[in-house]
Amino acid sequence: MEPIKVQSEGGLNVTLTIRLLMHGKEVGSIIGKKGETVKKMREESGARINISEGNCPERIVTITGPTDAIFKAFAMIAYKFEEDIINSMSNSPATSKPPVTLRLVVPASQCGSLIGKGGSKIKEMRESTGAQVQVAGDMLPNSTERAVTISGAPEAIIQCVKQICVVMLESPPKGATIPYRPKPASAPVIFSGGQVRADPLGASTANLSLLLQHQPLPAYTIQGQYAIPHPDLSKLHQLAMQQTPFTPLGQTTPAFPAGLDASNQTSSHELSIPNDLIGCIIGRQGTKINEIRQMSGAQIKIANAMEGSSERQITITGTPANISLAQYLINARFRDVAAMWNDPSSMTTS
Length: 350
Known about the structure:
This protein is an alpha+beta fold. Helix content is 37%, strand content 23%. It contains eleven helices and twelve strands. Helix 3 (67-89) runs antiparallel to helix 6 (154-170) and helix 10 runs antiparallel to helix 11.
């Protein structure tokens, strides 16, 4: 979520983009018959409401607009879900009404601010709004985003969303955000000549959505930019400047036999990193290397230091897209560290 601040006479008004993760049934309820419900929500709230395409069990609903419009749209969604619960109970023996539940998709770099020191912020939100709030411990697959689940009465959910938005604005995302893209119900296997067969076992996350949209999209979207520094450390600068292009999923590569989908072939790639710089890739207690593994989906092994050698070998194993993204993230990590050397005031413990 990247807030754009707009000064207005009544004080600070803000345009926000909030992403929700919904199941197919929930999306159907929001769209309504012939799209009437979502049309009404757009008109009455003044917010832009977009629903991701694709044959996916889950869909992303993106809501964009000024804060007032966002909260109106959220209220309409929450009350619609409550109406659905009441209607479903009329045919059910259940007596207690289950809560309305919404799932926000939030950059992982903002989740610490949402939780607060020792869980203080999330506890405060629960107590002041009456809503239940849970931040997922793991990132959503192939992304750097986490799900934030809010449950309760519609009124409580609306108050809770307002508080979450305030935290998001006070603590913008850090670095690159790889947005979550829901996995298709089935992914295709691509044969030579371009024939496609749906594979219910599912091989690759993005292939089907790429084919359905008939346009070349990157396998991963990187939001935000890294500064390109000019540090005194020549080795660090050299590593930081290395660029690795992504290999789009589904793209055939001559190195693979005809008739096979190159994007699903596993291979290995080796990098040599100077001993004195390996620590910035590993991070404190392995946090950075684990993040890179999780974001890229690649296996990354760091060889033990060899006596007499000034370098350590890193072996990256995975699909071409996994390897390419891992290399990009390693290079980006060097750029971050190099930027900190240029500007010591920006240094934080990492």
